[in-house]
Amino acid sequence: MAGWTILLKTPRGLERVAASRAEELLGEGVRAVPAPGGALGLVILEGPGNAEEARRRLEEELMEAEKILPVEARVSATLEEICKAAAEAAVKHLKPGETFAVRTTRRGRHPFTSIDVNVRAGACIQEATGNPVNLDYPDKIVWVEIVGSEAFISVTDGRVERKKTYPGKPDITALLAKISVAQVPYTGDLRGARKVGERIGRAAQTFELRERVIAPFKTVDAAEQAEFIRGVME
Fold first, then answer.
1. Cα(76)–Cα(123) distance, rounded to whole angstroms?
2. Could you give the CA distance from residue 227 to residue 40 in angstroms, rounded to a whole number?
C-alpha cells in the first residue's frame, strides 16, 4: 500500500482493541494488522495521506498505544540491511551534536541478538553522522522492530521513551490492580450506548484495573443496558 506505515506498541492482549480503534480514528483506507506473525504487543498500521497527522491523532486519542513509531524504512531482517537503513534514517533526523541510542526488539529466530543489532547499527550511525551515543537519556532514539524476516526502522525524540517513566518514579501498577470502578450505564440510543461502553471498557483495560462493576442507580431499559455492557466487554 502506498502511503505511510506506523507501528503501535501496546500492552499484550490489547493488539486487536488498538487496531480496531486506530482504524476507527483514522478512517477510510487505513489497514491495521494486530499481532503480525503472532508478535504480541504490536500492531502494523498502513494508510494514505499525511503520516504526521496520523501520528498526532493517534498520540492524542489512542490510549491503548504505549508507543507510536512512524516507520522510516522496512527492510529484510539482516544486519547489513538494518545497519544501512538505520544510518540513512539517522542522517535525516539527527542534528549536529545530538545524542542517540538504538533500541531493538526481535520477534522470531535470527542468527544475531538484539544487542548485536544495537552495536552494529549504532556503529553504522556514528560512522555516517559523527553523533555521540547516550544509552540512558538520548536526544533521539532509533528503533529497530524485527518481525520474522522483516525489520522496521523508526526515529523518534528521546522523550517518547521517558513520557511514562523517569528515575525515581513510583510504580503504580500494584495500586491500579486493586481498584474497582463502578460505572453507571449509559442508556438511550442503542448505538450510542454501545459506543460509550466500548470506550469505557478500553480505558479500564488500558489501566489494568481490578474490575468494572455496572451499577445502575435507577430502573433502566434492559435492552439499552445490555448493549452498553456488550460495548464494555468487547
1. 19
2. 29
The CATH architecture annotation of domain 4-70 reads: 2-Layer Sandwich (3.30)
| CATH of 74-162 given 3.30.450.190, 3.30.2130.30, 3.40.50.2300, 1.10.10.10 | 3.30.2130.30
**Could you read off the pLDDT of 91-118 as tens digits, one per residue?**
999 999 999 999 999 998 899 999 999 9
What does each C-alpha distance from 127 to 16, 57, 79, 133 come to in angstroms?
40, 35, 16, 12
What pTM does this model have? 0.71
Alpha-carbon distance of 141 to 21, in angstroms, equals 26
Predicted confidence (pLDDT) per residue in 163-209, tens digit = 655 556 666 667 877 888 888 888 888 888 888 887 777 666 666 67
Q: Where are the domains of the chain?
A: 4-70, 74-162, 173-233
Secondary structure class of 231 (helix, strand, coil): helix
Q: Which helix (H) or strand (E) holds 110?
A: none
